[in-house]
Amino acid sequence: MNWKFKTILSNAQIIKNILTIYKMKRLIFLIILPLCLMSFREPDADLILDKVDKNISSKNKVFESEMIIHGRRASRTITSRTYSVGNKQSFTEYLTPARDKGTKMLKLEKQLWIYSPSTDRIIQISGHMLRQSVMGSDLSYEDMMDDRKLTEIYSAKVTGNETIDSRDCYVLELTSKVTDAAYYSQKIWIDVERYVPLKQEMFARSGQLLKRTTLSDVQQVQGRWFPMKAVYKDVLKDGSGTEFILMSVKFDQDIPDHIFTKAALKQ
Amino acid sequence: MIRFLFKGIIRDKSRSLLPVIVVALGVFLTVFMSGYLEGVFKDITDLNAKFTTGHVKILTRAYAENEDQLPIDLSLFDVKNLISQLRADYPDMEWVERIHTGGLLDVPDSLGETRGQGQTLGTAVDLLSPETGEVERMNIQKSLVKGSLPAKHGEALISDDFAERFGVLPGDKVTLFGSTMYGSMMFQTFQVSGTLRFGNSLLDRGAIFMDIRDAQTALDMEDAASEILGYFKNGIYDDIKAQQIENSFNARYNIEGDEFSPVMSRLIEAEGLGDYLKLADSAGGMMASIFILAMSIVLWNTGLLGGLRRYSEFGIRLALGEEKKHIYITTIYEAVLIGIIGSVIGTAFGLGAAYYLQAHGLDLSGMMDNVGMMMPSVFRAEVTPSLFYIGFFPGVVATVLGSLLAGLAIYKRQTSRLFHELEV
Q1: What is the ipTM for the molecules in this complex?
Q2: Which residues of chain A lie closer than 8 angstroms to B184, CB-CB?
Q3: Under an 8 A CB cutoff, do B73 and A122 touch?
Q4: CB-CB under 8 Å, A123 with B183
């Protein structure tokens, strides 16, 4: 009898335990389900852009670059050293070829000055001249000057996923939310894992494609992913585009203030 | 009989005054408008030939495809050799090299920093070699407003409008900023030797004229040029000869598949200009045709009115036994005389007005601010030999045609009813 009672009690305990486990599982299921559902939701475009900005933008950077311009007749290579602080200040000195050596460009806020050693003149560039090509390349002065964070200029939405060079990418459509953006809208392909852009298409307000950029050779520099090579193609221009290769890049350096003065242009 | 008819025309002004006025007015308009159109079309083609198209023009094929962008990177190479070959092959023509480039013209302050700046169209021609005739061809000497022509390398001329806008005087320095043939930044400082006004809004907005050797140095274009222009030595465009030269040059130099091989085109093939030239050629004929048609209708009606007014006169003449044919013929003779008188008066006034507009011109510069084509801002007529007869024959023909139609009414008069009609 006692044995029977014990057995019944034991069975009840088992059933209770089973019920407890079932309840816990249901609880776990109810907790996990929304998380799983969240993971299948469309990713937040602003969050993606923010992560891209964290990789691309910095307090300041110093880099040496090589620009290979492919013209219809010939290609030529220009090397330069650039110091930039956010999107407000930038100073570039051209190192080669001999004809361009010593030419310097200073950008302060929205103003740009160019120093020519052959004439010992400082010329200010303004207005629509900022949309002209730099050194015959596929980049305009405006392209070089506009270094604001993407989140400051554009509102974004994710339109799909694609693969570029075997890397999964979010495809985002960016529409300008400021009046002075160099391009009204952009289509941008962002590496899903590293949050760096791998391709960009820039459009005018009319929808006309103006430029196409492909970025590659993504390297980790000071803890951030950064594309070391970009190929710019002005689609309204003949030629095979302009390659922009970073030979070295350093973020968050101590740059002396006097670099960003007009006096530094003539030094 | 002619003397008799002439006396009739002079003495009976009610018979001749209105037809003479109508003919004179029509002839005046024909002569004046023909002279005006010829002058305007000639000025447009001359201006374009001198500044942009030449009588024939040589470019690389790649440059020709993008000519409106002034792509100096697609310019002609080995220009000296090509020009000496052209001079040997086509001795009836003068050959000159030119460079066109766009950029910024920057005016420095005392510290060498930008004081003023404007977009510019840079034109480089051989300013320092008188034998090329470029200074005369482009009317540079006569277009000088201040200063003088460049006398040495490093001097340039700028448009007077630009100089006024930025307070630039001869002797001041300006810097041309743009791109070299290979895309590098180009900075070249020139001393302004003088200022120019061509009377053409495109050139007067902000042009700089420099010597071609200076431009070649600044733009890294050693032995290169945007274009080579050919001009007939007599200054007159001859399309048949130009076509022969074009065909022989292109057969020799233009290589299929090589976008940098030189290709020649004629003035008439320049965009829009061919149509202008055809229009100019046919302007006189068109004016005469319209005049003959319109005036014939007007003079026919005038003749009908005259016939009605002279109804009694013709009746009496018929009653006196004059033949209808004779009356009809005398009416035609009268018409010839009236046509001649009206045409002489109309031609004289038309030539006078055309000559006045040739000398003084019609200043339309106020309407040319946004004109993208190279057009003169002062429109002038041109008195040509054809104006002396272009209105004369249509004037006579229209009068005679009007009288021929109106005079047919004479044959409808019935002799049997004449006396009954004359009793009234």
Answers
A1: 0.71
A2: 78, 97, 99-100, 135-136
A3: no
A4: no
